[in-house]
Amino acid sequence: MGRRRSGRPVWLVAAALLLLLGGCRIGTSDDVSLPPRAGAWSIDYVGPPGQVQMADLAAVSATEAWAVTEKRGSAGSWKPGLLRLLDGRWSAVQIPAQLRAQPWLRLAAAGPRSVWLYPDAWGGVPPQKSGDAPSGPWEHCPALRWDGTRWHQVPLGFPPVDLDVVSPDDAWALDASGAARHWDGTRWRTVPLPARGIDIEVRAADDVWVAGDKAFDDRPKQPAAVHWDGSGWQLTPLRRYQAPYDAEVVDNGSILRDIRAESAGDAWALGVHTVVDERDDAGRDEPRGAVDEHILLHWSGTRWQPVPGPPRPFRDKTYGQAVPDGTGGMLLGAWAYRTAEGTYFRIDAPPNTEGWQETDLPPLQRRWLTVQEADVIPGTHTILAAADLVGHDSVTRPAVIRLTLDAP
User: Fold this and answer.
1) Left, alpha or beta for 208 (phi > 0: left; psi -120 to 50: alpha)?
2) What's the predicted TM-score (pTM) here?
């Protein structure tokens, strides 16, 4: 069963930029040597230039995958597009009429006969606080399920923000309030969570993970990882994240925003602890800005443990997502690969493309690569990713890239 994932909202890109600017103080190695090479991305598909960007991707078999694009129109409007990989070729696929007016679409899949296409109620930008209304025009939009031959309509009575699938009759979703919903093939049922859900990962009917945060009346929000065992949700213990003792705190909180599981005893979670400190170097009472600490955790089957992040040369560019590859290793972000033993390798960009490293090309010939979503091809250790290629003139081309790792 392949990875099923909603696309990465815009706020996570902003968070990644804050992480890069703010630095990282805990959970990373200070080794300044350049990591050995693990391999390089190659380009599978490049779309025409224009205001088109990738939004989501799902690999459903060794020969089939789907991807969603977003095209900017006039007056800031967006129009979705759908791509399908079949027998080695990517081609445009017409979006069913029920969702053509929905600007933001996402994918989930449990195989070639269970591919879901659904509206993103956040519209790429989730609410800043609980209770805010969804920004995406999701009302009256159904989800659609591909059975290998045709699309079937699945009604929605809530604003979906993430969805994952076990089978056509077994799916889980998170709504804009952070609550969990379960599809049994006939209807959606609300299943209360002991925390606010941001990201959901379904391995089986009795193995579901939700990452998010938990609010308290008298102390800052703390990260939350919640597990469904088939009968109920269990809030797993996590360490508390606190501001430095000498900080003059304006805001302070932690969140887990990405979770992926390989088995009952192997899961990964990514998050961030943010502290907004009033102090500045001159001692004036002006906000200094956010100082962020990366959170990288591994689940061993009984508890979550902090894991050292990648070494300094590329560590601040690697925390967008974690993608286990089925060997015990994982892709971290776009440019780092971690082996099962904890060794980090670097991943290079495609030829003549800027990634975490710079090319020697003249400025007018350069292009930059950003990865939006990645997924392991079922039955392999190869990773596909939805990416954007941006030229010096800011023209964007949607792309699909592929990674076959060299590292052991």
Assistant:
1) beta
2) 0.86
